[in-house]
Amino acid sequence: MKILFIYPSRLDKNQNPIKYKKAFLPPLSLAILSGLTPKNHDIQIINDIVENIEFSPDYDLVAITAMTTQIGRAYQIADHFRTLDVKVVIGGIHATVLPEEAKNHADSVVIGEADNLWEEIINDFENKRNKDFYKDDTRPDLQNLVLPRWDNINLDIYPRPRGHKLPKMPLFTTRGCVFNCKFCSVSKYFGRTYRFKPISHVLKEIDHIGTDSYFFVDDNIACNADYSEDLFEAITRKKINWLSQISTTVLKTPKLIDLAAKSGCTSLFIGIESINKKSLKTVSKGFNKIEEYEELFARLRNSGIKPFVSIIFGLDEDSPDQFKLTIDFLMKNKIGNAYFWILTPLPGTKLYEEMDEENRILSKDWSRYNLSDVVFQPKNFTPQELYDGYWKAFQEFFSIKNIAKRLYYNVPITSQPFDAFTRSLFYQLHYRKKVKNYDHPLSGGIDRI
Questions:
Q1: Which of 9, 14, 182, 228 could cross-link to 350 by cystine, CB 3.0-4.6 Å?
Q2: pLDDT of 148
Q3: DSSP of 94-155, one letter per residue?
Q4: For residue 332, with 0-12 CB atoms within 10 Å meaning exposed, 13-18 middle and 19 or more buried, which class applies?
Q5: What pLDDT digit, counting tens, does each position of 347-360 carry?
Q6: For residue 61, what pLDDT is reported?
Q7: pLDDT tens for residues 91-146?
Q8: 134: closest CA among 142, 146, 125?
Q9: For strand 195-196 and strand 174-175, is the pairing parallel, antiparallel, or unpaired?
Q10: Are 121 and 139 in contact (CB under 8 A)?
C-alpha cells in the first residue's frame, strides 16, 4: 500500500492552517509507526506545520495523529481525503479521549498507544476489513526493540545546531507518569504507569540516528532514580548533548542532577506551574514545594544545566498580582527561559470534568485549546483580563532588558560560551518576536507565514 503519515498543524480563527518556515522537532510518533510498518509498503511522512499536503487519490491509507489543538486541522485533512475515497485512520491523545467524535471523520480510530496494533491495522486495511475502533488493553512492551525510521521524513525543515548534519533528534527512554495532575492528559493516554525502555535499546537508537544532539521526550526522565542513574552513566560514553523534562521531585535524589550534567545534559524543562501554594493544590500538584525551588535552580545552574521553567496562569487561587510576582521570581532566580501557559481544561482530564460540571467551559472549539487562549471562566479574572495579563507577562519576560540579563546569567554556565551566546540570542529574539505577535514561543515553529 501507499501510506501517508501526517502530523497536522492547527487552525487560525478563519479555519486556515497556520504555517511556518521551519518546525521545531521531527514527529517521533510517526517515525516509530514508520519503523513498525512492513517494508513492502511505500511510506511518506508530512509535517503539515511546514510542508504542503498533496491531496491525491493515489494514497491507499492516510494515518493522522493529533493533540486537541491540532484536531480541527486533522479533521479537515481527513474529510478532504475521504471525499477522494482514500481511507483514513486517526489516533493520538484527542482521538483516544473522544473516539466517537473522531470516528465522524475517519474510517478507523486508534484508542491509546498504537505500537501493538499497527501491523494489524495495516493488514485490515490492505484486506478491506478495517474495524471502526482499535484498542489494545495491554501496554506496549518496551523490551521489544523498535527503531524509528527517519528516512521517510524531510529533516531539512528543522533547524540544525551549528556544525551538525541533522537537527536535534527526539527519542524516548520511558513512557508514562506516576503523578496525576488535573490539567494533564498524559496519564489518560499512557496510564499512571512508568515503563522503561532497556538502556541497551536507547544506546542502539542513538547509534542508529547517528547524531550527538537529542531531546529526550520523556514526561519525567528522572522519575525512577535507579533507572535514571544507570541511563545517565551509560549515555555519558556516547558524548552527546541533550535536554529533557523532569519534575521538581528530582531534588530528593540531587546526585541525578550532577550525573545528568556529566552525561551531556544542557537544559531541563521543569513544570513548577506556580509560585502560589494554594494554586498548586487546586490542580493536584502540591508535591511541588515552592520553598525548594531556589535550591533546585541553584543546583542545576551550578552543574551547568540551564533550567527551563513552565508556568500556568489562571489557576483558581491566582490573583491579578500573580503575573508580576512570577516575573520577579524568575528573574531573581536567573531562569534562562520560561514558558507561560493559560490553564486549559483539555478533554479527558479531571480539570475538564470538573469545569464542565460547573458550567465553566466557554468554548469547545478545539483549535482554541492551544494553552494560550481562555476557553473557561476563571474565578478571579474575566476571560479578557486573564488573556491580557498572560500576554503582557510574556512580553515583559522577553523585553530587551530581561533578555540581556538572561544572556548574562546563562552564558557563564556553559562549556561553549560563544555557541551558547549566539544560539540563546537567536532564540530569545525569536521568542520576543513571537510573543509580540501573540504567538506562543513553542507553538508550531520558526517564522510564521
A1: 182
A2: 97
A3: HHHHSHHHHHTT-SEEEES--TTTHHHHHHHHHTT---SEEE-SSPP-TTS--PPP-TTS-G
A4: exposed
A5: 999 999 999 999 99
A6: 98
A7: 999 999 999 999 999 999 999 999 999 999 999 999 999 999 999 988 899 999 99
A8: 125
A9: antiparallel
A10: no
Alpha carbons within 13 angstroms on the beta-carbon side of residue 32 total 20
Q: What is the pLDDT of residue 411?
A: 67
For the chain, the residue count is 449
Question: Which residue do the cell numbers 478495517 mark?
Answer: 130
Lookup: cell for 211: 547524531
**Residue 320 burial class via C-beta count within 10 angstroms: exposed 0-12, middle 13-18, buried 19 and up:** exposed
**257 near 299, Cβ under 8 Å?**
yes
β 87-91/108-111 pair status: parallel
**Interaxial angle between packed helices 417-436 and 400-410, expressed in degrees from 0 to 180 and rounded to the nearest 10:** 160
DSSP 37: S
- Which domains are delineated in the chain? 2-135 (3.40.50), 159-448 (3.20.20.70)
Residues 126 and 1: beta-carbon distance below 8 Å: yes
236 CB-side CA count, 13 A? 14
Alpha helices in 306-349 (DSSP H): 322-332
CA distance 426 to 178: 36
pLDDT score recorded for residue 183: 94
Helices (H), 163-219: 186-190, 199-209
Q: What is the pLDDT of residue 157?
A: 97
Spacing of C-alpha 105 from chain mean position: 24
- Reading the block at residue 355, the C-alpha cell is 469545569
The whole-model pTM stands at: 0.94
Q: Fill in the amino acid letter for 430.
A: H
